[in-house]
Amino acid sequence: MSIIVGYIPTREGRAALRAARAEALLRQDKLVVVNSHRGGRDFDAEEAQRFEEELGRVQHDLDEAGVEHEVRALVRGNEPAEDLVEVAEESDGRLIVIGLRRRTPIGKLILGSNAQRILLEATCPVLAVKAGEED
């Protein structure tokens, strides 16, 4: 079994990673970190290098913490929700962890499309976390 976390280097991404790491340690499961991009014009070599360096730091931190893990950087043209659900299914996912942005009162009426899609399509439980002050 594994814990799947959607990770991007934002406050919300760091909060999700922290919660997923705690779940993986608690359950003694493998942690699968998924960094998903659609690709295209906005994702150039410089952006790819920046994300690769960030994922290297994540890997180092997980090694230091003694967490069994795998880091996947995906640029397959899929929406992040599609990649997370797919990875959870192929990795025998026990739990998906995602970070949520704080929204305006109007924005709260509509959950982010990726978060909503993950909640509706995942075949395992989903833990949604918000970033705290320390993120």
Automatic annotation (TrEMBL):
Belongs to the universal stress protein A family. This is Universal stress protein UspA. PANTHER family: STRESS RESPONSE PROTEIN NHAX (PTHR46268), UNIVERSAL STRESS PROTEIN UP12 (PTHR46268:SF6). Pfam families: Usp. Transmembrane segments: none annotated. The lineage of its organism: Bacteria, Bacillati, Actinomycetota, Actinomycetes, Micrococcales. InterPro entries: Rossmann-like_a/b/a_fold, Universal_stress_UspA, UspA. Residues 3-130 form the UspA domain.
